[in-house]
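Re-running Taurine ABC transporter substrate-binding protein to confirm reproducibility after the cluster update. Everything else is unchanged from the original entry.
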Amino acid sequence: MFKKWFALPLLALVLVLGACSDHEVKEGSGNETEEGLEPLEERATVVIAEDGAASGAGFYIANEMGYFEDYNIEVKFATFSNSDEMLPALAAGEVDVAGGISTASFFNSIAQGIDVRMIADKGHNNEGSSYFTFVIREDLQEEITSYEDFKGRKIAVSSQNAVDDYIFGEMLKYAGLTRDDVETVLMSDFGNMLAAMGNESIDAALQIEPLITQGESQGLHVRFGDATDYAPEAQIAMVLGSPKFLGEEREVAKRFMAAYLKGVRDYNDAFIKENGDLDRVIEIMTDYTALKDPEIWKKVGVTGLNPNGQMFVDDIKNQYEVYKANGAIKGELDFDQAVDTSLVEEVLEIIGEYE
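Result of re-run:
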């Protein structure tokens, strides 16, 4: 989820689209479409910038279960290595849909004129099983029993002025601490945090799955509390849409969003409600993501994905204000334009809310 994207020139992007479509277009699911959302008369192709992140589960499941095909939509996946180039491609309509991580640089791009819209949830923490939360060294369990005990400790965080840094700050406020009360260790590679735990060069880390589960199995660290203790509505990632897709191609966009939400609902049925086809969903996730062990999928705290597509908009605004207060934002962001929930709202009126 925390990979970044580098854009390619348009010609190279076209080549990448062909190369990255490893997953064949699926047969329709055989399900009837909702009244008011019949299949498109002419086949449409939707380009998604996605790199195999777990938070793209809704895209992968919808594709494999035939939900896009039900609406006569074919999806193609394009991979970027840096959002600085992905966002202009999205704004220009070369890419229709993408995932965005909350960072100061992301907000800066929009504030400085890159016209993309945040349209749906693509990542938050599930209460009690956050996929992105703090861990402490296993040998410190008797010394660190509350967040206040982080005082004076060496804590690894992967970046500054990004969502993990924001969550770190929320934890410190919750504990009644300041950044001066701890020693922050910037460590961009989450994997290196495991080694640092092993050689005891850090005491705690803001870690991510599946490395949380992996570190626990290796006796390197233990999960400490849960991110929802202090940041219960942190919006970590968002589905982004191009203005062209949301405007000129609205009928395609509506059907795309309906299929996406059906995929997210299958995901929630399997992982959250535990009454869905877990084996099939895990099979799809192992196919599309770097986590290939089905048994690990049954143990990890999975990415939170809202089955109604709703974002924590107030938290998005709060993160922006925090980055701005840190001097990391230049320019003003028009949230009335940048956050567009109308597509999700329109689709929910048709397919109904998840229960």
